[in-house]
Amino acid sequence: MTVTTQRSASMPGATMATLMLAVFTVSVGFGAVLPLLPFLIERLLGAGGEAVQVSRHTGLLTAVYTLALFLFAPMWGRLSDRRGPRGVLLVGLLGFGTTMLVFSLIESLTAVYAERFLSGMFAAAVTPVAAAVIGGFTTTEQGRARRLAFVSMAGIAGFLLGPMLGVFVTRFAAGFITLAMPAGSVAIPLAATALLAFLVAPAVAFTVPRGEGHDRSQKTTGASVDKTTWLVPKLLILTFIVSAGIGVFEVGLALRGKQELGLTPYQIALMFSECSLVMFVMQAIVFSPWFKPDSTRWLIAPALSVLAAGLFLMPWASDFTLMLVVIGAVAASAGILSPILTYWISAKAGSAQGWELGKQSAAASLGVTLGSTAGGLLYNVAALPGASFVLTAGLTVLGFLLSLGLPHLLVLPNSCSRPVSAC
Question: What span, in angstroms and rounded, lies between the C-alpha atoms of 81 and 212?
Fold first, then answer.
């Protein structure tokens, strides 16, 4: 099976670096706050706050952020297709930085909810649009896959560094700066992320194309259009399932470490960092020169089976070491699935890169929203121990069954091992 090389309009290196930095910025902002949320909520609730309330607000705050991504990502993607990606990325970065900065000095639970929603709304203009810029350039499938993987890895790197930076920067600054709020708040990570967003915005203005990039749409037959119509919804469903698992996993990781295992903020941040590091490495391997993009379709079902097993075993990881093992399994499978699903949706999107990748971002955000909410609401239900993990593992099994026929359907337009008439 071979992949036909298209005439390439090479993306400037500065543009690629800027897109990666933009995605890195919004990921740092999310990753820095997440492990600190249970401690922030506990302080804001005061002495009367109970563990159930802490877990509930942790899940809901994470869900509010991803709900905003779900609501606004398709809109930003469609606007990018029509008006060009540069303006959308600038609005996203400047808005993201502004909300993070304004709310970094406000200490009330209501304000934290508002900050999470507004930050998510503007973050929705960054990640899917950055991927759409790449998809809009005519290039080889190998080159496009690698670039999409680099953007995804930039997001993982931000999430990897975010938790550790959030803890260490807060501790470091607390020793030199007298703040109007207690140590351990999210103010310093938010302000630092806002500064980074403001620095990246000028780079976007100078390096990202003003228009729609290079149209890579191709003439398709009725059969191929029909096949794409059925394939993309399946890929979006799988994106939702994987993201729901990640949402439950992230909230459960913070709550289990804090309430059941008695881990420190440093240890919780270390677990999140391990998760991101494993995902980063797996993405680098999947879209390395060792694998052809077309062959990645065979990895979807096995990765879903590993994800289901990891989620099911999560409630029985009784100490820090076992937690690290389970985290590695979940992170490896998620790290494989996320970029593969993005690549195949982009491959079927034609010239509507912003719209289709915006819908994928919305599906991912909805999954994380519902997963985070379920992770927080079901965590302390005594009658259903580990319910959120077990239920999500069952959902992932359904995704595994849905994916079994995909390898025979996911074939690149110029690559087919079956008769031409079937392609």
Answer: 6
Predicted confidence band of residue 294 (pLDDT cuts 50, 70, 90)? confident
The predicted model scores a pTM of: 0.74
Backbone angles phi, psi at 138, to 5 degrees: -75, 125
Judged against a pLDDT cut of 70, whether residue 184 lies above it is answered with: no
Pairwise CA distance, residues 126 & 26, whole Å: 8
Structural domain contains residue 4: no
CB atoms within 10 A of CB 91: 17
| pLDDT in the model for residue 217 | 40
- The answer to whether the beta carbons of residues 365 and 70 sit under 8 Å apart is yes
Q: pLDDT, tens digit, for every residue of 237-293?
A: 999 999 898 888 877 777 776 666 667 667 777 777 788 788 888 888 887 777 788
Number of structural domains (the chain) is 1
In a domain, 2, yes or no: no
| 367 touches 320 (CB < 8 A) | no
- Asked if 373 and 59 count as a contact pair (C-beta separation under 8 A), the reply is yes
Q: Quote the CA–CA distance of 114 and 403 in Å, as a whole number.
A: 38
Q: Indicate which CATH number applies to the domain containing 302.
A: 1.20.1250.20
Q: What are phi and psi of 40, to 5 degrees?
A: -65, -45
Cα 8 to chain centroid distance, Å, stands at 29
Asked, for residue 38, whether it belongs to a domain, the answer is yes
6 in any annotated domain = no
Domain that holds residue 72: 13-212+222-422
Flag whether pLDDT at 1 surpasses 60.
no
- Rounded to a whole number, what is the largest CA-CA distance in the chain? 71
